[in-house]
Amino acid sequence: MSGDTITIRERTEAIEEEYLSPYASLSKNSKGRAKTEPQCDIRPVFQRDRDRILHSKAFRRLKNKTQVFLSPKGDHYRTRLSHTLEVSQNARTIAKALRLNEDLTEAIALGHDLGHTPFGHCCEGVLNELCAGGFVHSEQSVRIVEKLEKDGEGLNLTEEVIDGIRNHQSEGTPHTLEGQVVRLADKIAYVSADVDDAIRAHLISEEDIPEDIREVLGTNVKKRLNTLIHDVITESLDSPEIRMSEERLSAMFKLREFLFLSVYRNPEAKGEEVKAKRMIEDLFHYFMENFEAVPEKFRRIGQSLNDPKDRVVCDYISGMTDDFATQKFAEYFIPRSWEAELD
Predict the structure, then answer these.
(1) How far apart are CA 92 and CA 113, in angstroms?
(2) Which of 104, 133, 150, 263 has the most CB atoms less than 10 A away?
(3) pLDDT for the residue numbered 1
């Protein structure tokens, strides 16, 4: 639009300035994008970022990537996509209550796990050992949105969204409160959901959870989720930082420790991980020895970035879904049946 006409985006930005917390990230004050581009007349910058992530190929692939359980028997176990949506929901609930920027919060939440490998954290560890420069899914998520998506163009996201994606893990320190919200919402989501899935899989029962944890957080999945989200909101209201009470935070980490002992390292739940790790390791060595088998797009992007072969191979493998990785392994390592021609 031209002249003195106020766009819908500008109206939305004005509403943000009037309504949001003084600690919120205003869309109009964004630090911007690596490549300057015209503003949308309807959507503020963080809403555009959210939409770009939602429409990306990497986001769609999350539907067939393992969260915790490899190839579970049943339709109701979490995948990396359903986990991402739960993180987004938790984060938006907190952000709305604290009058933070929901668009920025949702964009970070939807993008935080784009770089996860097939078969979950176990195969992230494999690539981290095999790649000379290491492999961390949060950094790979940033690499996807900056360099790999859209055939090497990237999504050209704002600095605030990229910062939140990069720093969503425990050791990270997001520079915005919205990023801090996602960092906690991620932990709340997977701790709550992994207990739910483990109970569904009959690996644990509700009564197996230590009593001191249940007394602080609640006696079922719904109560624990409600307790943790309320605690973040109560402790962070009108505050320049996102935090939890010491009691609830300690109980949440105790619950996480319980999950490590009872679920994450449970041979019954993790028995297939040995096979998945070997599969990813074999694929890595195959592509390093047969680099021409890596799709031309990845090789071209890697060449333009002056990346070593192992980084390009990691880009290709980490982007695979569970099914596609299995398919490629079968293609390269499982003999096919054949018939000789009859005379």
Answers:
(1) 17
(2) 104
(3) 43
Q: How far apart are CA 84 and CA 62, in angstroms?
A: 8
Provide the 3-class DSSP secondary structure of residue 197: helix
Question: In angstroms, rounded to a whole number, what is the distance separating the alpha carbons of residues 141 and 327?
Answer: 24
Tokens linked to 203? 């690996």
> Which two three-digit tokens encode residue 262?
């009872």
Q: What is the mean pLDDT of the chain?
A: 94
Residue 69 CA to residue 271 CA, distance in Å, equals 10
- pLDDT at 67 > cutoff 60: yes
Contact 60, 28 (CB under 8 A): no
Tell me phi and psi for residue 119, to 5 degrees. 65, 20
Residue 102's alpha-carbon distances to 9, 149, 169, 189, 207, in angstroms, are: 15, 24, 20, 17, 37
Structure-block tokens of residue 88: 């987004």
Assign 41 to helix, strand or coil: coil
Please give the pLDDT value at position 340: 58
To the nearest whole percent, how much of the chain has pLDDT over 70? 96
Angle, vertex CA 289, rays to CA 288 and CA 291, nearest 5: 65
* CB of 189 closer than 8 Å to CB of 60: no
Residue 98, CA distances (Å) to 50, 107, 209 in order: 20, 17, 31
